[in-house]
Amino acid sequence: MDDPQLRETRAGSFGANAALYAEHRPGYPVDAVEWAIGDRVRVLDLGAGTGKLTEALLELGVDVTAVEPDPLMRAELARRLPDVPTVDGRAEAIPLGDASVDAVLAGQAFHWFDNAEALAEITRVLRPGGVFGALWNAYDDSVPWVKTLVSLTATSVSNPSAPAPRHVPRHELLGEVEENTFKHQVLRTVDSMVGSLRTFSHIAVAPDDEREAVLAKAQEYLSGLPDSRGTFYQPLLCEVVRAVRR
Ligand SMILES: C[S@@+](CC[C@H](N)C(=O)[O-])C[C@H]1O[C@@H](n2cnc3c(N)ncnc32)[C@H](O)[C@@H]1O
């Protein structure tokens, strides 16, 4: 994203829709999270939001600390997962000690961080042999209706020329960056799909009339699909990168 101010606005847009986010954004497949962390047990969920990735980590039985800067996202996480230690903080200044965790994961969040500053902090809080993993739930646009939905919901603040966010730059304290993709799906109604769309930053920060027009278009398109009466599945690709701390 070329415009730093727009980037900051989009990075800070999630809290206004925290409850909707928690209700309608997809979670993460446990096999993807397991691939990212291996058998490591002390895990930091960085940019934890409302706790979508935290929930998958809890299913694996690990010890999770959640760090999240947005008070509204943090409050939603604390309400849904009251037993998880949840701390105010940013990726560029992580409020944890040196070598204090075995894994740092960022779900749908690494592209919002200042990558260089965040990697300096991530490698500081990781013990040697620990792992950094970044996960993104991407649209599976090999499916025709998904491809159409993606094109219908671009807004004036989308950045189609930007590279896919699934990228972690090399860092001297991290080993080779490995990648993997896990297919999964989420059960939807038209309303839950549109509710999820409303929480995307390129839609949330668009001018009011543009946002509502895009969402109305999405609602109309989805409602007209033969399979969208009642419930249907949204196919997703969970894209994961991981790198071990030297
Ligand atoms: C798309 S949400 C992802 C939330 C959660 N990880 C998930 O997978 O659902 C991005 C989150 O990153 C947080 N965020 C934005 N900038 C951040 C930063 N510099 N450091 C840490 N978190 C940040 C936002 O507040 C938001 O909760």
UniProtKB/TrEMBL annotation:
SUPFAM superfamilies: S-adenosyl-L-methionine-dependent methyltransferases. One of its GO terms (molecular function) is methyltransferase activity. It comes from the Bacteria. Keywords: Methyltransferase, Transferase. The keyword Methyltransferase applies. GO terms for biological process: methylation. Its EC number is 2.1.1.-. Residues 44-132 form the Methyltransferase type domain. Belongs to the methyltransferase superfamily. This is Class I SAM-dependent methyltransferase. The lineage of its organism: Bacteria, Bacillati, Actinomycetota, Actinomycetes, Pseudonocardiales.
